[in-house]
Amino acid sequence: MAEMQDSWKEVAGKAEALGLKLKLHLAQEKSEDAGGDTEATDSADTKAMIDDLGRKVQEAFDSAGNAAKDPAVHEDVKEMGRLLKDALLATVSTVGHEVQTRVDGAAGKSDDGVVDVDSDVATEEE
User: Fold this and answer.
1) DSSP label at 40?
2) How far is the C-alpha of 103 from the C-alpha of 95, rounded, in Å?
3) Distance in angstroms between the alpha carbons of the first and the last residue of the chain
4) Three-class secondary structure of residue 124 per DSSP
5) Are 90 and 3 in contact (CB under 8 A)?
6) Whole-structure pTM value
7) CA-based R_g, the chain, Å
8) Contact 104, 18 (CB under 8 A)
9) ∠ Cα 78 80 69 (to 5°)
10) Residue ranges of the alpha helices (H) in 35-70?
11) The pLDDT of residue 40
12) N or C: which end of the chain has fewer CB within 10 A?
C-alpha cells in the first residue's frame, strides 16, 4: 500500500514540476510579445477584441510548441509517463492483492492459500 501511495506522490510531484515549466514557457512567450505590442484594445471595438483573442490563442499554441521543443520539458513528459505507468501498476497490484485476500477469506482459505479442511470436516461430521 505504501508503494502505491509513494508512486502517486511521485506522479503528483512530477506533474507539478512540469506544470511550472510550461507556465514559465508561457510567461516567457508573453513577455517577448508584450515588448512590441502597443496596440490598445477598446472593449467597444469588436474587431479589436477578436484580433486580441486570436493573438492570445496563437501565443498559447506557440508557447506549447516551444515547450514541446524544450529538451527538459520533453524529458519531464517522458518521466511523467513512466511514473504514471509505475503508479498504475502499483495500484492494480495492490487492488489485485486485496481482492485475492477477500476471495480467499470468503472461500475459507488461510493466507497461504490452503483450504481449512477441519472446518469443512467438522460440519460434515455433525
Assistant:
1) P
2) 12
3) 42
4) helix
5) yes
6) 0.48
7) 28
8) no
9) 45
10) 46-69
11) 45
12) C
Asked whether the beta carbons of 18 and 76 are under 8 A apart, the reply is yes
**Sole residue written with cell 486570436:** 54
The Cα–Cα gap between 33 and 80 comes to: 30
The residues near 47 (Cβ < 8 Å, ≥ 6 apart) are none
Q: How far apart are CA 12 and CA 82, in angstroms?
A: 13
- CA dist 59 and 36 (Å) reads 14
Give me the average pLDDT of each 10-residue run along the chain (126 residues): 82 84 79 56 63 78 78 85 91 91 78 52 46
Which grid coordinates are listed for 87?
503508479
